């Protein structure tokens, strides 16, 4: 059924729109939650690097063999944090520079480790062990949990590698490393887990909103469709239903030319009814085309020509204008010319066809006038709309 | 130019061979027949050779699709040629522009020999021909500088467009076919008297004044 098809399409579009809205909600919720947590993480990172890290670096200035290199390592980390702060303020992400930033972090760690005095791993002298991890977490904030976790593990392995390769591995150094790991790996990992959970919660909340929205829209669409169908059925019941009933109970014979004529007209009327709900730029012309199509399918040669511009007319007026054309087209034998001339204050629909004289229904709206003129087997019906003089 | 009774010659410029062949068939079948020269899609065929002396030019406005060649139409009219524009399209604005440029007829390709043959005969005598399609365009013309038409003239234009039969128009409006023609002719005179000057147009106005189709006072009245 054309009818059901049209309705379903409309429904789908409405539901799609609702989903789009929900997507907006989801995106907004997620962005808001993530931004808050990103700022919090950044503050923690700055406090640890520039507070604790810098304090340890300055206090242990004398124990360092090459203090300048340590300062350079610190400057690299501070630079990355500065850039991240700028990005947070501008609401931007690291994007394709992320890899470079992580590389700079590891470069700083490497510089620091290479100049670390013997036996000082995981002590307050090894200030970068507990600082670089936070910088990495901040840079990788919007990446999936596994990326952050991989970074933290890599950072751990770096520190372990440094211990094993360049320093003396003994009970004390291993114990320091193990204790350090608890905070160096554990705390940032907690933050990453929190971020992942928040993102999941945001997605879930948005999905719930979207589902609710979708159900509500579907309900509204169903109600509107039902109303439309009831109304259409009421419109058809006056003319089409008695015809169908007559055919069903055998009181009307399909072989009777009068019955066939009535069937043609009702079929055209239904086509027009379905066309009325299509959303098109020019409904009057659209409906006329549907009427013309009925005749065209019967093998009637139809010419349809429209000139001028006309205002948007209400459905009742359009029906009055197309009714005569519809009847003539549905009963034309071999040819029909349908024309439409419009202006702001006059719209005229004419059909000239070789159809039998037919009793055209009186127009329902006072602004429409219908004239029928017949000459030698040709019937010319003209319906004119003129707005009432105000 | 062909005097009364002499064989009318027309030249057609159209890139579709089938159209030219169809028009040739209609011209051969016409009584009396019309001699047709086929220039193909070459505009040069209208200016040189046998085409240069043809009484009427049947001109396909869109030799290049979607690019109506108003410039060539203007050149043809300016050099005194009597042009029938034969177009695939039926946009109001295009039809009216062709008339304003001085074409004697504007026919769409849906309008067959019933309109093309009379149009060629009329054009050969320097007279306009208004087919149903152009009639609809004139009836629906709402340009601010359009000439003022009487309600009856508009009604006739609309009816001619709707029915495509002057007999039906006459019977419906309770007038004679001759009166139908007079109304349409008056509309064309009003349009010829407006807009861009062209020789075909001024000839048309002069002749209408001579024949009493319209008076000078009426013409001055419609020119806004």
From TrEMBL, chain A:
Swiss-Prot/TrEMBL keywords: Membrane, Transmembrane, Transmembrane helix
Spans traversing the lipid bilayer: 37-55, 67-90, 97-116, 148-165, 177-201
Protein name: Signal transduction histidine kinase
Organism: Actinophytocola xinjiangensis
Phylogenetic placement of the source organism: Bacteria, Bacillati, Actinomycetota, Actinomycetes, Pseudonocardiales
Automatic annotation (TrEMBL), chain B:
Protein name (Swiss-Prot/TrEMBL): LuxR family transcriptional regulator
Chain positions with 4-aspartylphosphate modification: 60
GO molecular function, one term: DNA binding
Pfam families named in the record: GerE, Response_reg
Key words, A-Z: DNA-binding, Phosphoprotein, Transcription, Transcription regulation
Lineage: Bacteria, Bacillati, Actinomycetota, Actinomycetes, Pseudonocardiales
Gene Ontology biological process terms, A to Z: phosphorelay signal transduction system; regulation of DNA-templated transcription
Domain Response regulatory: 9-124
């Amino acid at each position: 059924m054309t009818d059901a098809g049209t309705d379903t399409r409309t429904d789908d579009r409405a539901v799609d729109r609702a989903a789009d809205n929900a997507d907006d909600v989801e995106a907004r919720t997620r962005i808001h939650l993530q931004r808050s947590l990103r700022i919090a993480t950044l503050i923690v990172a700055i406090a640890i690097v520039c507070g604790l890290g810098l304090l340890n670096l300055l206090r242990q200035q004398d124990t360092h063999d090459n203090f300048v290199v340590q300062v350079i390592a610190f400057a690299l980390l501070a630079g990355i944090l500065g850039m991240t702060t700028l990005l947070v303020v501008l609401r931007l992400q690291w994007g394709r520079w992320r890899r470079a930033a992580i590389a700079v972090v590891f470069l700083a760690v490497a510089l620091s480790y290479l100049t670390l005095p013997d036996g000082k791993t995981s002590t307050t002298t090894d200030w970068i062990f507990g600082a670089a991890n936070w910088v990495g977490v901040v840079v990788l904030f919007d990446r999936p949990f596994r990326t952050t976790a991989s970074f933290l593990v890599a950072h751990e392995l770096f520190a372990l590698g440094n211990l094993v390769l360049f320093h003396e591995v003994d009970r004390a150094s291993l114990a320091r490393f193990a204790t350090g790991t608890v905070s160096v790996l554990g705390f940032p990992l907690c933050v990453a887990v929190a971020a992942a959970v928040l993102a999941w919660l945001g997605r879930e909340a948005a999905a719930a909103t979207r589902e609710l929205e979708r159900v509500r829209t579907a309900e509204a669409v169903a109600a509107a469709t039902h109303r439309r169908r009831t109304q259409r059925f009421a419109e058809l019941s006056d003319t089409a239903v008695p015809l169908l009933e007559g055919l069903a109970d055998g009181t009307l014979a399909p072989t009777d030319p009068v019955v066939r004529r009535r069937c043609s007209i009702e079929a055209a009327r239904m086509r027009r009814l379905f066309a009325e709900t299509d959303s098109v730029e020019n409904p009057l012309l659209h409906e006329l085309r549907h009427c013309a199509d009925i005749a065209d399918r019967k093998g009637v040669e139809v010419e349809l020509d429209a000139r001028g511009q006309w205002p948007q007319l209400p459905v009742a007026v359009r029906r009055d204008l197309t009714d005569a054309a519809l009847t003539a087209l549905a009963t034309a034998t071999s040819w029909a010319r349908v024309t439409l001339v419009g202006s702001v204050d006059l719209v005229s629909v004419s059909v000239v066809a070789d159809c039998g004289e037919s009793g055209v229904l009186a127009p329902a709206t006072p602004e429409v006038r219908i004239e029928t003129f017949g000459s030698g087997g040709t019937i010319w019906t003209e319906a004119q709309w003129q707005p009432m003089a105000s | 130019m062909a005097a009364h009774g002499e064989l009318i010659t027309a030249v057609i410029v159209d890139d579709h061979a089938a159209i030219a062949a169809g028009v040739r068939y209609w011209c051969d079948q016409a009584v009396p027949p019309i001699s047709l020269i086929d220039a193909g899609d070459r505009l040069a065929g209208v200016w040189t050779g046998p085409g240069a002396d043809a009484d009427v030019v049947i001109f396909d406005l869109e030799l290049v699709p979607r690019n109506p060649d108003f410039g060539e139409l203007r050149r043809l009219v300016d050099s005194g040629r009597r042009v029938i524009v034969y177009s695939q399209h039926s946009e109001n604005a295009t039809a009216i522009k062709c008339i304003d440029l001085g074409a004697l007829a504007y026919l769409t390709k849906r309008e067959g020999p019933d309109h093309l043959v009379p149009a060629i005969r009329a054009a050969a005598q320097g007279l306009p021909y208004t087919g149903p399609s152009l009639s609809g365009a004139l009836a629906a013309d709402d340009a601010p500088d359009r000439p003022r038409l009487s309600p009856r003239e508009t009604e006739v234009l609309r009816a001619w467009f709707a029915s495509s039969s002057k007999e039906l128009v006459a019977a419906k409006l309770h007038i004679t076919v001759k009166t139908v023609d007079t109304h349409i002719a008056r509309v064309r005179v009003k349009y010829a008297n407006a807009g861009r000057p062209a020789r075909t147009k001024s000839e048309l106005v002069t002749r209408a004044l001579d024949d009493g189709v319209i008076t000078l006072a009426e013409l001055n009245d419609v020119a806004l």
